[in-house]
Prior knowledge:
This protein starts with 5 loop residues before the first helix and ends in a 15-residue tail after the last strand. Helix content is 20%, strand content 39%. The chain has three helices and ten strands. It has a single domain (8-151), classed as Trna Endonuclease, Chain: A, domain 1, CATH 3.40.1350. The chain is globular and about 40 Å long. With 161 residues, the protein is of the alpha+beta class. A five-stranded mixed β-sheet has the order 1-2-3-6-7, with helices on both faces. Strands 4-5-8-9-10 form a five-stranded antiparallel β-sheet, with no helix packed on it.
Amino acid sequence: MSKIQKRDYFFGAALSLFLSKNDDSCPSLVECSETSCQYCMITDTSEDFYLYMKYTSNEVDKRTWQFSMTDTDKERINGCIQSGLKTYIIFICGSDDLSNGEIVVLTQNEYAKLTHKSSIRIKLQGKSPKKYTIVDRASSEIRSVDRNRFDYRITDIKDCF
């Protein structure tokens, strides 16, 4: 019998939510590690693309998550981008109470502005509508993305920063 791992819940939930809004997509697992998975999405009606998913289940403090970006993560994401297919980076912000997770979507252009970082800190803040802010502690720059990006077709997402 196979044992279900914590990561299976997070990646499975994100894929299920994604496929409910992008029903022309068929995922093909490219590579998976303990904290990240890379999928090639083949579509019937739009262009093919990559999803690079990374999760953490530890909140740094209330509604703030930190993701380490290893050299392996960066190489895999850059490989997807260099293939010529659009690439979306999905950060799954988990919690011990599985129903309180969040999903942050970045386009490859938004990610390109963060490639120098060894970790990415994401905070959910604001009143309705809430946004995710990506805080760069090395500078005063704060970048924001909409909270509801995963609620629509992913190919309709426009760059925010």
